[in-house]
Amino acid sequence: MVSFNVCGIKNVLNYMPWCQNKTFEFMFESLDADVICLQETKIQAQDLTEEMVLVSGYDAYFTFPDSKRGYSGVAMYVKKGIRTLKAEEGLTGWLESKDYKGVTYRDLLPSQSIGGYPTSIDKNRGIKIDGEGRAIILELEAAVIIGLYCPASSTEEREEYRSSFFESLDLRVKNLIKYKPVVVMGDLNIARELIDSADGRQTLYREGRVVPAADGREFININRDIMEEWKKSTYSRTMLNSWVDDMGMVDCCRIKHPRRLGMYTCWNLKLGARAGNFGSRIDYIFSTRDLECTNSDILSHLLGSDHCPVFADFTITSLYENEDRISNPPRLSASYFGRFRNKRTIHSLFASSSEQKRSTTNVSSENTQKRPKIQTKPINGSGAQTDGVSSRKKGSSKQQKIYSFFEKPGPDPESKTREAPFGISPQVHGEKNIRSLSVMDPKDRSIPLQNNVDRWKHIFTPPPPPRCKVHNEPCKMMTTKKNGINRGRSFWVCSRYVSIRS
Length: 502
Hints:
By secondary structure, this protein is an alpha+beta fold. Among the domains are: 2-190 and 234-347, Deoxyribonuclease I, Chain A (4-Layer Sandwich), CATH 3.60.10; 462-501, no CATH class. Helices cover 23% and strands 17% of the residues. The chain has helices spanning 24-31, 50-53, 123-130, 156-176, 198-206, 216-222, 224-231, 235-245, 252-256, 346-349, 353-370, 449-460; strands at 2-5, 35-39, 58-63, 74-79, 84-89, 135-140, 144-149, 182-187, 250-251, 266-267, 279-280, 283-287, 292-298, 310-315, 427-429, 434-436, 476-479, 490-493. The strands form five sheets. The chain has a six-stranded mixed sheet. Strands 5-6-7-8-12-9 form a six-stranded mixed sheet. The protein is globular and about 85 Å long. Its EC number is 3.1.-.-.
């Protein structure tokens, strides 16, 4: 399983390594997962494209915010052949079912719903919690999977919404694990432990409450008290740690790498924090202990967002259904949307594995030419950026160059008796003086043309940037884009990327 906050589903394919092919089919083949959860899709139903919905080999499920456009959103892709019994939007069960019109999920018969709905959440509150398109719940034969994009806290009003969201999530998970194995995956916007937050570690170090260490084992041993305090410092952090400590759920990445420092999944790209790995681990895959997690890690070398993908491998024997009883996906599947409904034939849903193998064999040589494979090693530096320089047509050879005004023209081939131009007095601004030039003296004709070009380059060359007062290195210029009185203004900052060392 893979979780990836793409920060805009229309944008992610423009970056390495996905821009090598720019298709979700290529992306999903590269991720090689049975279930893929994308968060912060920032798209509405009417803006979905066939490329996003009808990805070869996958069924797609989307949830959207009710009112805000280009905001939040979660998508779940499940590989065909994995039977999805039920699919729901939201956590509280107060949204209307797509399978049974006019009926909310919690009002369905037990055999028709996933269940586990929190009884303490009333309808008005539940609709508000689920109205931002932040959760999809799928019931497979082997487990219930919850895909999430949890809200961050920014204002007092949002903190109230965030608390309600996590309350609903906590109650739903506690109810579901009584009946079936559960996987919770997505961007939870919580740094569960102190070692999951570079900013938290640095702040506490400056306050003298944290002792630096050479590795994770030493850091945990000498800072055990403050780490326990961190785990209970907020309601959401306390809730998440109770899943692990009290409910027996597994933080898949952390259990495979219990003492690794710098295992971050999100960075502030405006500060260049990814280069210095100054980030936080807020993307997770949790599972109940009855699901065997064989491997889990972050994929920090894969770009396209301010987050990186997280994966977890599970050994589930009853995940795939038999070919003789392949069923249609629930109505929440995006393939039922009007404009996509007839794009696939019934035959394609029941295609045998032998037919798929033949198809793969036939196009293998063609795909070798068209679809470059992604790099499995981390991509360094600016490799994710592409050249945006466009070529420009050369001007006409008859067009007069600006530096030609500083030279005395040669004899006219048609009339050698014509006098040279007179009265042209352009000014060249140097560092200390201004030279007024008329017709050049014969002795100056030997000055190379390059000298004039160099003079103009000097005029238009900007002054060097100021130097950082701390590191004595050239600063870099940034521009304010936030709305307000300072929007559009530029300022100088230290050019070093943000890291714990700096």
